[in-house]
Amino acid sequence: MKKILLGISLILTLSNCANQKQLELESPNGNLKVTLDNSEKNLKYNLFGNNTGIILNSEISILQNLEVKVLDTKAKEVNENWKPVWGQFSEIKDHYNELEVFLDYEGIPAKLYVRTYNDGVAFRFKVDETPQDINPSYIIEYGLPDTSNLYSPAGEGEPFGPVSIGDFGSIDTKKLKLKMPLVVENGQNNFLSLLESDLVSAPGFNVIDFKFDKDNNKLVSKNDFASEDKGLITPWRIILFEDEIGGLLTNTVPLNVAAPNKLENTSWIKPGKTLWDWRVHGFTTEDGFTYGIDNESYYRFIDFAAENDIEYFLIDDAWYTHVEPGKMTLSDKLDLDKVIKYAEDKGVSLLLYYDRRQGDFGDEALFPYYKSLNMKGIKYGFMSSNVPFTRDAIRMSAESNLLIDFHDGPVPFTGVSRTYPNAITREYCHAQQDSRRAFTPKTFIRMALINAIQGPLDMNNGIFDITSVNAGEREKGPKKLNSLETTVTAEAARTLIVFSGLVCIPDAPEAYAEKSDLFEFIQEMPVGKWDESKVLHAKMDAFISTARRHGDDWFIGSVHAEGGTLDIVLDFLKENQNYIITYYEDAEDTNSKTNPEAYQVRIATVKKGDVVKAKMVAGGGHCMWIRPEKI
Q1: Domain Glycosyl-hydrolase 97 N-terminal, which positions (predicted)?
Q2: Angstrom distance (rounded) from CA 16 to CA 197
């Protein structure tokens, strides 16, 4: 890591004078500005973007009901680059101005750290020692304009919104469960996201809770400190700021404020694609074979993975019948030892599920047991929103060289993939067909634009045999027949659009083999190893188009809920270079309800500046693989 500490040239009003009440900190490019006001014996902040008020007259506190006084400040500018183990970018710039504010809460010293980036701001408190009779709470108000609209994740349901700030006074806010990351359309052609990062470094804090304070007409985030430790450090509370909603998905502030990588050796951490057995159970192939929990089924998955350069095969629930500390009684439906040996011989790594409800015997024995089975990772189900348990599970899985994929209402540990890059993905969304439901094209776009801001998602996109799923030919398919509304090209595009370190594709090997020319897009995609990522088009409930680069190759995926055409301008290609482009498209007769598996694949050449008309049916998709033409 090359670190360059630049000379301090902050616009900082009266920063070193304890008697003054107003402080000001700008972003490196001057577009964002935070002011702190201590004139009323509390601490309030204002956030301005492009000289316009974004959040005004809002309190920030760590020790409530105590008067606070600014004693001193210290400022610095940092401009450095760092390389993640895996991610949407191969190198990330960390450029910010920071103000360290020394505070006195009626004799209790504390510090507030404020960072301004060009595309967001972050706040963190640190208190070395708190009296026993004081119960700290990390509270931030958000004085948003009444014209602002909010969107929020809703667990495994469709994210809700828009909810206008101006309407909060007349609705029952007790029934409104606001979760991070909140997305705000602020009515000024800007988009915000309110969330936190680096929870892994803040013992004693749980996930933030958002409420609306009708008395002050402000949105409030609150988190009580639950630890018995005398000192505390809070997570970073973040406000992302973008001109386009798609920019929130590639904003690097949440990663930049997270603690650096704690693992000395990361050579064993390999992002990639995985086949998965759970949604294929009960499917009968043309040759009469029916998939289930048995060796022959798993051999088929492993063979296909080996033949198509798919790194992993994930075995889900029901491979064991009884749990004891560090030991599981295997199901008599299969011989797991033979499956493990078969995968080793084929060069395919295995991932294995664990359901905590079937026996919570402590992870100190669990992870070494999985390692003894030669597993490369664990899919952990039903951990609940227990922050300490999740933090320990991430650390202990790393100690056993295991990737970890959290499911079933996990904690959104934003930024943790920098600190513990073995935390490869999580189901902080409604994974496709989960709870035997199927989500709509609109729901997918909402989750891709909202839930995905907090980090990698395991959404299980990539269904190719849509007709079979809709006909109810899978044991774990949707309960309602014909409820899966999508197209096969949209399914392929979704695997690129939703960022993850582990892309779990849920269909049978035969479904992918039958459409091998379309499967090529997924097969060639280098999951988690991107050099560059950008969202080209995005509109809530309507469409999203994402481009990712690996080396000189570009992969582009688009989906459209309503149907339409997006202009993809290839201005990111190199000058004086011809490129081969493969299009994977909805066909003229494609229909997401009646003919979802119709598609076409064609090859052409393009160059920098060309415009591709990406045409999609309602609920459909469009994919492109672009690579330099070989001379």
Answers
A1: 25-260
A2: 29
Q: How far is CA 254 from the centre of its chain?
A: 11
Q: Distance between CA atoms of 86 and 420, rounded to whole angstroms?
A: 11
| Token output for 390 | 């999740």
pLDDT per residue as tens digits for the range 98-137: 999 999 999 999 999 999 999 999 999 999 998 888 889 9
**Does residue 346 have a pLDDT over 60?**
yes
385 compared with 180, residue with greater pLDDT: 180
Contact predicate 220/140, CB 8 Å: yes
CA distance 598 to 576: 36
Amino acid of residue 533 = S
**Phi, psi for 520 (deg, rounded to 5):** -50, -40
Residue 61: CA atoms inside 13 Å, Cβ hemisphere, count?
23
Residues 588-599: tens digit of each pLDDT: 999 999 999 999
Per-residue pLDDT reduced to its tens digit, 557-574: 999 999 999 999 999 999
* Least confident range of 242-251, 352-361, 456-465, 563-572: 352-361
Q: Just give the CATH number of 429-454+465-500+508-631.
A: 3.20.20.70
All CATH 3.20.20.70 domain ranges in the chain, comma separated: 429-454+465-500+508-631
Instruction: Give me the chain's average pLDDT, please.
Output: 93
Pairing of strands 312-315, 68-82: unpaired
Binned at pLDDT 50, 70 and 90, residue 384 comes out as confident
228 pLDDT band (50/70/90 cuts)?
confident
How many whole angstroms separate alpha carbon 74 and alpha carbon 97? 11
- State the Cα–Cα distance between residues 486 and 462, nearest whole angstrom: 10
Overall residue count recorded for the chain in this entry: 631
CA distance 593 to 590: 9
> What radius of gyration do the chain's Cα atoms show?
25
DSSP secondary-structure letter at 178?
Answer: B
> Which value, to the nearest 10 degrees, does the dihedral of the CA atoms of residues 5, 9, 10, 14 take?
120
CA distance 311 to 301: 11
Pairing verdict, β 564-569 and 579-586? unpaired
Encoded tokens for 521: 């897009």
Number of neighbouring beta carbons within 10 Å of residue 256? 24
CA 624 to chain centre: 23
According to DSSP, the β-strands at 423-426 and 2-4 are: unpaired
**CA torsion, points 291, 292, 297, 298, in degrees to nearest 10?**
140
| Distance separating alpha carbons of residues 54 and 44, to the nearest angstrom | 14
The per-residue pLDDT for range 437-454, each reduced to its tens digit, is 889 999 999 999 999 999
Amino acid at 249: L
For residue 620, how many other CB atoms are within 10 A of its CB?
Answer: 29
Average pLDDT over residues 177-187: 92
How many angstroms separate the Cα of 47 from the Cα of each of 114, 118, 257?
Answer: 12, 13, 19
Task: Detail the DSSP E strand segments found in 279-417.
Answer: 312-315, 320-324, 327-330, 349-355, 377-381, 403-407
Checking if the pLDDT of 7 tops 50, the result is: no
Phi, psi of 289 (to 5 degrees): -85, 135
**What pLDDT is recorded for position 362?**
60
Q: Above 90 in pLDDT, residue 464?
A: yes
Closest CA to 461 of 304, 274, 246: 274
Range 417-432 average pLDDT: 96
